[in-house]
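debug: dumping io for the single-chain case to check the tokenizer round-trip. Nothing else runs in this session.
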Amino acid sequence: MAILGPNISRDVALQVTGLVIDASGEATEIKADPLLVLQDLVNGFMALSAPVTQLILYALLEEMPAVKGDYNQPVTKIKLVCPIIPNPAN
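debug: decoded output
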């Protein structure tokens, strides 16, 4: 929500079968396999911005090792580079 805004984030979440969200966009219940719900949510956000979604998913899974173990999908750590600011690695 902080990156894509509450309206876009809520719209993506509303399309995920088995995910119940309230008017503010907060998930209140998962009525399906949580890993499938997470994958559907990730796919929805990937369609909007794959690099941003990968970055957020990587950070989320690093903070939640149990979910990372169950997720069992490859997640590539990416580094976003702003074209306006010189890359220090160059």
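debug: round-trip ok. DSSP finds four helices and two strands in the chain.
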